[in-house]
Amino acid sequence: MQFIYFTKTLKELAPPALVDFCKETGVDGLDLAVRPGYPIEPSNALTELPKFAAIMKQNKLDIPLVSAPTSLIDADSKDAKNLFEACALAGVPMIKIGYFPYKANFSDDLQVARKKLQGFSKLAQATKVKAVYHTHSGNNIGNNAVSLKELLTDFDPHHVGAFADTGHLAVNGGPIKMELEILRPWLSIIAIKDILWEQAKGDWAFKVIPAGSGIVRWNDVSKGVKDAKFQGTIVLHGEYEASGLPNRKDLAKKELAFLKKQFA
Which domains does the chain have, with CATH numbers? Predict the structure, then answer.
């Protein structure tokens, strides 16, 4: 398996510092957020992403995934075309696209989403960069395995894939073994989150915490991954609080050690 780190929380780090982060924490590479305000964004990705990918490769590191802006749901947009072309040039095999919203009627919203996904499938086929869709809880089509299967059915897994998230599936899905089995034909990459529920002002909300200290049943995750015969890329999402960069690096090291033990 390959273990990489999502750079959403590393927005202030320039490319050389991202290389250092990988080396110091022991991860194999990055899930690179290519979004407005980041060192590499959709507007400069065609030139900057291949440059950074070459630097990563020189350091024996990888970029298996680019995470686009969460609003990227139009394959005909300039940003979508730039990102897929940039990933093709840089040798990045997957892009996480945005979320198709559930608005009022699931069947109607699903058909709109499937039509939009057809555009990404064509873009993926043309560039040989797979579009992956993340199981994010909330008002999103595809927020658990059954919903995502409805979205992905009849799409070629070579062009469109599932990005299963342990934390969001714990919040919004069924038993993880079942979730991964349902998604197995399209299962392309797995995101690592653990979750803690908290009550504030009379309501419940969840926050992300380091793996191993929340509600996710990690032994079930390990068995589900094994049963699905998944040997691909695992993303440490790292969307938990840290007191600074040194603390974040320390947490990443500990989380990586925990995950390698779980998936051994």
Answer: 2-262 (3.20.20.150)
